[in-house]
Amino acid sequence: MASILSYFRRHHELPQPQPSTGQDTPNAVQAESAPATALPESGQRHPPASHLRKALAGLLPNLEHRPAPPSPQPPRWFGPIDLSQVRFPANVAVPRIEDVTTWITQLHHSSGVVKKRHSVGAGLYFHKPSSPRYQFAKHQMNAHERAQLTAILRHLMEQHGLDSHARNEITDLYLSLQHARLRTHTPQQRAALRRAHGNEGLLAVAGLLPGPATMMVPLLMLDRSLATHRDYYRSPGRPEYGAAVADMGELLGSPNVAEEIKLKIAGEILDRYIRSEKLFSTEHADSILLALNMGVVPEDLRQWLGRPQGMTSRILRNPSTDAQKRRLIEWALDPNNYSGREICEA
Fold it and tell me: Is the pLDDT score of 95 beyond 80?
């Protein structure tokens, strides 16, 4: 046992410090004279160790030397354009070519896919579906710029040297622009809608008090709220509504626009602006629906009070046909069916 303890002491004892001889080695002198490593202040981060930096160098991209993403380029069909040849409305000025290039490039590279919910920041309930391209046209451009770009896109659609792919892209940009114009309201109109919804909500809550009409009042207020929202989007007093309808009507009636483009725009008006989102005013929608039905009001919709009700669901219960689209084009040949090119700044 004694031999085992002596072996352990001999091989595991720590070395004893040697007395100083007065002659320090250069390394010892350098270590003593070196300043103490300063600790990082509060909120600062320790620099990574050298071995950790080497280990991460091959795994993480070098963010400092990452090249900047290329700037978006205009579409291939958009070349030099003589703005003096574009027919602008009388109250619309000629834009700069640099601004036109920026608008078309941004719209072209924005997605046109419609989303069910998209934050628009308007503070309204029951938002309608929209796309990033629509969002740019509505929130990054003002009414005057939308009118300028509408005239330019119409000028491009009247050119006969474009292929089918280019015409489709131009038409898509044009429709996104008109969609934004139809759904633009003034701040006063948005505030009035919020007040109306607030009042209807208060009445619905008050109707929950015990009484004979406990269940009827909330249902009536819900129906009234939906009607208020429909009237908000159908209102002919929207600042750019008249100009947008007049632009689309003139384009459908223009002999210089290809039938392919006319049919696509007519289908968008019937299936989206009238049947789905109901963005056309009651007067224009009824006029178009009567034209689709050869001027005859369905028997089960005749009302002694005047305007027929529910024609959209009866005449356009299914997606529009080519025959209905052509009747809409014929309707647009008469300028008296649409009017108003004034643009009001929101």
Answer: yes
